[in-house]
Amino acid sequence: MQPTMKATAMAFRAILTTIMMIGVALTTGANSAAHAQSANGSQYTMQEIVDAGHTFFGETSGGLAKVVERAFESYGLPNGYILGQEGSGAFIAGLTYGEGELHTKNVGQHPVFWQGPSLGLDWGGQGSRAMMLVYNLPSVPALYKRFGGVSGSAYVVAGVGMTVLTDEHVVVVPIRTGIGARLGVNVGYLKLTQQPTWNPF
Questions:
Q1: Which DSSP category does 150 fall into?
Q2: What is the pLDDT of residue 97?
Q3: Cα separation of 133 and 49, whole Å?
Q4: b/e per residue, 158-184, with b = 16+ CB within 10 A?
Q5: Mean pLDDT for back-to-back runs of 10 residues, the chain (201 residues)
Q6: Fewer CB within 10 A of the end CB, N or C, for the chain?
Q7: Can you tell me whether residue 48 is helix, strand or coil?
Q8: Rounded to the nearest 10 degrees, how much is the dihedral formed by the CA atoms of 16, 20, 26, 31?
Q9: What is the 3-state secondary structure (H, E, C) of 20-37?
Q10: Nearest to 130 by CA among 94, 89, 163
Q11: How far is it, in rounded angstroms, from Cα 122 to Cα 142?
């Protein structure tokens, strides 16, 4: 009887030890994940972007959260965003001009201007506010260049639409409201600059 009790006690201690080791491993893993998430303090969470968007566009932008969620699902956490205004017009060929401010957590705020042509089944005109999510931005000067449109990236929900632009490294996702004044689909690029210019090319 005694050997059986001794074996049972040893088995019980082994089970307890295993449970404790699993608990320590899970706790360490959770702490490491939390540390890794907080260590990258240059990125914005989805809630931060949605809050900034609602403040900028107004509470009437009902589809904003869904559009932002789509961008986060596809590209993750941005390390910058632009808030600004733009005017655009088109009859087959079109032009867009805008200005705003780049927001970052680690290097502050910086002025941004953008302009670009478009070509396609597109006509009309509009003035609107725009929020652009910026991904993989290594430095502020890396933003000032041309970004081409990604085919098939347009996404629209409840009057809020997004497209995707890239230079193969940095990704810019413009989000706009009031897109009904522009009909159809267009392809083109945006040139982001540090100073305003009338030259869209």
A1: P
A2: 86
A3: 9
A4: ebbbbbbbbbeebbbbbbbbeeeebee
A5: 48 42 40 39 93 84 87 95 82 76 96 80 63 96 92 79 89 80 54 87 72
A6: N
A7: helix
A8: 160
A9: HHHHHHHHHHHHHHHHHH
A10: 163
A11: 30
Query: What residues contact 162, with CB distance under 8 A and at least 6 apart?
Result: 67, 70, 71, 153, 154, 155, 156, 173, 174, 175, 176
Instruction: Give the other-Cβ count within 10 Å of 18's Cβ.
Output: 10
Please measure the distance between the N-terminal and C-terminal CA atoms of the chain and give it in whole angstroms. 91
Q: 76 φ, ψ to 5°?
A: 85, -150
Q: State the amino acid at position 51 in one-letter form.
A: D
Residue type, 12: F
Specify the pLDDT at position 124.
53
Max Cα–Cα distance, the chain, nearest Å: 95
Backbone angles phi, psi at 68, to 5 degrees: -65, -40
| Residue 58, phi-psi category: left (phi > 0), alpha (psi -120 to 50), beta (remainder) | left
CA torsion through residues 133, 201, 116, 108, sign: positive
- Cα 95 to its chain centre, rounded Å, is 24
> Cα-atom radius of gyration of the chain, to the nearest Å?
25
In contact, 107 and 141? CB cutoff 8 Å: no
Phi first, then psi, for residue 159 (nearest 5°) are 80, 5
